[in-house]
Amino acid sequence: MSTINFANREINFKIVYYGPGLSGKTTNLRWVYQQVPQDRKGDMVSLATEDERTLFFDFLPVDLGEVKGFKTRFHLYTVPGQVFYNASRKLILRGVDGIVFVADSASNRLRANAESMRNLRENLAEYGLSLEQVPLVIQINKRDLPDALDVEMIRAVIDPEGRFPVFEGVATVGKGVFEPLKEVSRQVLSRLVESV
Prior knowledge:
The protein is α/β, with parallel strands linked by helices. It has helices at 25-35, 86-93, 110-126, 151-158, 178-195; strands at residues 3-5, 10-18, 45-48, 53-59, 66-67, 70-78, 98-104, 136-141, 166-168. It has one domain: Rossmann fold (3-Layer(aba) Sandwich). It has five helices and nine strands; from the N terminus they run E-E-H-E-E-E-E-H-E-H-E-H-E-H. The longest helix is centred in the C-terminal third of the chain and has 18 residues, at 178-195. The two termini are 14 Å apart. The model has no long low-confidence stretch (mean pLDDT 89).
């Protein structure tokens, strides 16, 4: 959950990009990082082991303003895509304020999307949370693939009740990258304002 740095007059929020392996989580984060002005972001850090990689960086958004005189700082994280790195995925979710679920449009990745969403639910439950308690948006990435599944088919598998905002994206060219981030950030800030 958000943390307050009184010395710097900042509220820090944690946004996690979650989804199956190779769905575009890292590509999203790299695109955002490239677009944020240098003086408004920290260094991108890559924690890599032999088989897995986690990226994160923080930034002060230009257009989200202040909350009660405090600047907002967002820390963006990716989780390792493969479910067998579940311990890392679970650890990265600790203290999460918002989630961008990155689904893969490829026709052979429908099951991976479903498994990753199930895994997200289970990992949140370990912290006593549910999807209803954490702002979440869905980015259906790789919409440029020739065999891209229909958006409604993907949504029926990962969000059958249609509860979460959905954005189509092609992260490699920056299409649909900022919209999900802005929406989840807006939801996170709304929850904070409601709670104070």
